[in-house]
Amino acid sequence: MDHHTDYGNELWIGKCLALDDDNSLFINPIVESGLVYSRVLLAFLGIGRQHKTGDLKQIASKKHDDICIRDFDLPWVTVRQAVSGFSYASPTDVEFALSRVIETANKTVAHLTTGPSASGTFPILRTTCRVVIDLVCRHLYAPLGKHSLVPPVVKSLLAE
Question: Choosing a second label site near 95 at 20 to 30 A (CA), which of 39, 48, 72, 79?
Answer without folding.
Answer: 72
